[in-house]
Amino acid sequence: SLRAGIVGLPNVGKSTLFNAVVENGKAQAANFPFCTIEPNVGIVAVPDPRLNVLSDLSKSQRAVPASIEFVDIAGLVKGASQGEGLGNKFLSHIREVDSILQVVRCFEDNDVIHVNGKVDPKSDIDVINLELVFSDLDQIEKRLDKLKKGKGKDSQSKLKEDAERSALERIKLALMDGKPARSVTLTDFEKEAVKHLCLLTMKPIIYVANVAESDVADPGTNPHVKEVMSLASELQSGLVTISAQVESELTELPSEERTEYLQSLGVSESGLGNLIRATYSLLGLRTYFTSGEKETKAWTILAGMTAPQAAGVIHSDFEKGFIRAETVAYDDFVVAGSLAAAREKGLLRSEGKDYIVQEGDVMLFRFNV
Ligand code: GDP
């Protein structure tokens, strides 16, 4: 499944948030056939009300939500990109995630020491950005050196190397200006050519403004949050406000007391759902469903994926042996009441290998084994 790495300076609330995510995931773990959780990896279900509707209609034995893996990447501090051992190790963990969640401290608490002496989101964001930028610059320098030496053997690989070089030169200029690689406009071919470097500043980033309990109802009034908001839009990044403390306390309450607690804070739902949805939408992710008596399941794909690619998310054999997909839009399925009824009403379509899977499609794949 999709991996999101939680980063941030020390003492901003990363582990508090991560633990809340893990506890929440454990509560859902019964639904997961794969709940092996490493110490710093937590799996969390993507909340989706459509799942239970479909599951009820199909009388499924179980409903399996889509999931996101959260990885706690502690230890990113000033100087990490220069660090011999540890710093580099943290940066290499970040290379492996699909998106970055940077927790930014927006709560005041004199009992919790801030590494720079005061709550200052802009400085926190700059520090981390700079580490990511330095690390990418280092990667790019090395790669450009290598490209200078090695010559592509055939014209095909030469074409690719030229595209890579040109893209890297432009990214380098942006980085030297303190801007992330994702701010550089690249052609699809160039994107493909630089993909293998897993540049850190190419990954989508979401700023998670960690606020005090008293701010969850109206976080916009907190000046630190306002600052993060404007930085997020400047850096083409997402923003979610959450109170790690509140999320942590919620996991300790029996479920019947949670609503009451949330109401006392002036909100209607936990911030985790929001965080997960933001991660989802920022990455351009889509959901499709499979639904039958055995189970109803939500699957995560990238926007623009074709039917065979979507089938490949279930199993690579489904992609290789793809013949056709029978598909019905979620709303049509609900109106018809079942796959069979949808077929009778002509709402079930037969789609070929070029079909772009739409958000909420309910699908049945036909394939050769
Ligand atoms: P990390 O170093 O970024 O992983 O930070 P931790 O999650 O360990 O949090 C550091 C300290 O800040 C702990 O004592 C937390 O209880 C506290 N903390 C985390 N989030 C909040 C919050 O929203 N409000 C307050 N007052 N304290 C918090």
Structure at a glance:
By secondary structure, the protein is α/β, with parallel strands linked by helices. The protein has helices spanning 14-28, 49-57, 86-95, 121-149, 155-176, 188-194, 223-234, 244-252, 255-265, 271-282, 307-314, 316-320, 330-336, 339-344, and strands spanning 2-7, 41-45, 62-64, 67-72, 99-105, 205-210, 238-242, 285-291, 295-302, 322-328, 349-351, 362-367.
What's the gyration radius in Å?
23 Å
Regions with little confidence, pLDDT below 50 for 5+ residues: 32-36
| Biggest sheet, spatial arrangement of strands | 2-4-1-5-6-7
Distance between the termini: 24 Å
Helix count, DSSP H or I runs of 4 or more residues = 14
**Percentage of residues assigned to helices:** 40-55%
Report strand %: 15-25%
Shape: flat
Query: What are the secondary-structure elements, in order, as H or E?
Result: EHEHEEHEHHHEHEHHHEEHHEHHEE
Mean pLDDT across all residues, rounded? 87
Query: What about the largest sheet?
Result: 6 strands, mixed
State the secondary-structure class.
Answer: alpha/beta
The molecules bound to the chains, other than polymers, are: guanosine-5'-diphosphate
**Number of strand segments:** 12
Protein name: Obg-like ATPase 1
GO molecular function, one term: metal ion binding
Function: Hydrolyzes ATP, and can also hydrolyze GTP with lower efficiency. Has lower affinity for GTP.
Subunit structure: Monomer.
What does the model show?
The chain is α/β, with parallel strands linked by helices. Helices cover 44% and strands 19% of the residues. The protein has 14 helices and twelve strands. It has helices spanning 14-28, 49-57, 86-95, 121-149, 155-176, 188-194, 223-234, 244-252, 255-265, 271-282, 307-314, 316-320, 330-336, 339-344; strands spanning 2-7, 41-45, 62-64, 67-72, 99-105, 205-210, 238-242, 285-291, 295-302, 322-328, 349-351, 362-367. The strands form three sheets. The chain has a six-stranded mixed β-sheet, with helices on both faces. Strands 3-9-8 form a three-stranded mixed β-sheet, sandwiched between helices. Helix 1 packs parallel to helix 8. It is flat, with a radius of gyration of 23 Å. Bound molecules: guanosine-5'-diphosphate (GDP). Guanosine-5'-diphosphate binds at residues 8, 10-16, 107, 109, 112, 210, 212, 243-245.
